[in-house]
Amino acid sequence: MSWFLAETMEVWYLLFIIFSFCQQTIKTNVIGTLNMLGLAKRVGARILLTSTSEVYGDPLVHPQDETYWGNVNPIGVRSCYDEGKRVAETLMFDYHRQHGIEIRIARIFNTYGPRMNIDDGRVVSNFIAQAIRDEPLTVQLPGTQTRSFCYVSDMVDGLIRLMEGENTGPINIGNPGEFTMLELAETVKEMINPEVKIITVENTPDDPRQRKPDITKAKELLGWEPKVKLRDGLPLMEDDFRKRIGIPRK
């Protein structure tokens, strides 16, 4: 009975942590955006919302352009983030229409680069840290799901161009190069540590099966497209991670 009680309490505690995290996520997106819009209104500032490709959910359109309304599960475990960003976009345009606030909305796709949190749970960070530490690379099933990875300097360049331009957005900012998770793992293994194994683990619910930005709008309106290829960006991130983890190249 005591074992059962302990296990039950552990499960409830875990659920409480997840629920609290989700609450904070949606509050940050909604209340935080409202606060910043109120400030922008008072001081007459132009405001940028870094939205996300998550607003497209598990897309039924591929690649995703800005006219696509998305396929989001509103009650799923990821919805606190997906719907929080969608509401934030709504608030931005409401303030723009009603109060004349100058807004800019960027829909950011997966971004990577130096100075990321080593253990932030994002796939590029995970794979690089695991490879450096001689740990297996954990690919979430089925491994055929795709993502597109934009190097941080390209992302910053796109955001600056958006802020300095005249278009409100939303505009996709991301690298249209598309990789499966298995392809990404194989690339990290080849470039960083050929000795590590690649293993599969269970996936999280509502994980999008594919993700690739249509950046036609960014090209036409901002004169922007990414320059850094994945194979050029990964070593720069590896160097930064090795310095902070304290494991030099062999």
TrEMBL record:
Any one GO biological process: D-xylose metabolic process
Cited InterPro entries: NAD(P)-bd_dom (IPR016040), NAD(P)-bd_dom_sf (IPR036291), UXS-like (IPR044516)
GO cellular component: cytoplasm
Alphabetical UniProt keywords: Decarboxylase, Lyase, NAD, Signal
GO terms, molecular function: NAD+ binding; UDP-glucuronate decarboxylase activity
Pathway: Nucleotide-sugar biosynthesis; UDP-alpha-D-xylose biosynthesis; UDP-alpha-D-xylose from UDP-alpha-D-glucuronate: step 1/1
Enzyme Commission number, as recorded: 4.1.1.35
Similarity field: Belongs to the NAD(P)-dependent epimerase/dehydratase family. UDP-glucuronic acid decarboxylase subfamily.
Protein name: UDP-glucuronate decarboxylase
Annotated organism of origin: Olea europaea subsp. europaea
